[in-house]
Amino acid sequence: MAVYSHISKEVLENFLNEYQIGTLIKFEGILEGIENTNYKLETSKNTYILTIFEKRVNPDDLPFFIDLKNHLIKKNFICPKPIKNKDGKYINLLGNKYCVIISFLKGKQVSKIDGKHCSQVGKILALLHIESRDFLGKRKNTMDHNQWKNIFLKSKKIKINKFDGLMSDIDKELSYLEAAWPTDLPKGIIHADVFRDNVFFKDNRISGLIDFYFACNDFFSYDIALTINAWCFDDKFKFSKDNFLNLIYGYESLRPLIKEEKDHLSTLLRGAALRILLTRIHDYIFHPEGAYVKPKDPNEYLSILQFHQQNNLSKFL
Q: Is the CATH number of domain 115-316 3.90.1200.10?
């Protein structure tokens, strides 16, 4: 979440007249995250989140995200509920940008992660994979390994001394992953963004999973790899074997991994780390002026990538 688009109270009040969610009491921008603009809305009826879609989101994909959340809610999965306007539309325009209003989930990001948190994260990820099996929507992963080279080449054209030393190493890693990437693993709907700020906890229990705007069809174990990288390294990039095993055990308590998923985990972890490293470099270079959000440090995921290049976590499974 972040704030790129700035709106006035008058514009927002006029927009909310199209909904039946009460009158606006106050609103504030949410600075966490990097992708879309988000505002917390307090009305006379309840609290909501307004998301205004920015750069990477294709408007044609929005019905997929809305339908997926509605599908999961019917399964009692804890995620935000999309809100219709008076015309029954979930997706609307605010100015010249598409937006949605969703329900507000109580809870907050956990500050100090331990194995119990990771076990719950593993379970909710497996539950997402299981409960979406009968979801009929399809969406290609527009940030899959086939796209990483394009992001790399675009970023490489802009000479920034901070990243010059990385480019040769990234090029080699891209070549390795192109040759090693698996082609036939169990797949279905994945979240692809289960970062710490997208999982809410209340009284040390998960109270919701948010931000489904990278959801797509891809390998389940790639989703696990992205999640491991986000939850199993501390703020100094030290790997936690305890968190890793708890996340895996939590996941496998609902959906056991097959041998091929375990065998390819090291490659998927390297790819998952490189994907975030590349997009962070891209976002640092092409950061919009006036955005109320600080680009995240690419070096965090460089450290994680280097760890996976030197360690094969499959040996613990």
A: yes
Strand ranges of the sheet holding 92-94, from the earlier edge strand across to the other edge:
24-29, 37-43, 47-52, 97-103, 92-94
* CB 78, CB 191: distance < 8 Å: no
State whether CATH 3.30.360.10 applies to domain 9-103.
no
> Which segments of the chain does DSSP mark as H helices, in order?
9-16, 62-74, 115-131, 145-156, 161-164, 167-180, 220-231, 241-252, 259-263, 265-285, 299-310
Summarize pLDDT for 212-234 with one digit per residue, the tens: 999 999 999 999 999 999 999 99
For the stretch 274-315, pLDDT in tens is 999 999 998 888 876 655 566 788 889 999 999 999 999 999
The verdict on pTM exceeding 0.90 is yes
217 contacts 188 by C-beta, under 8 angstroms: yes
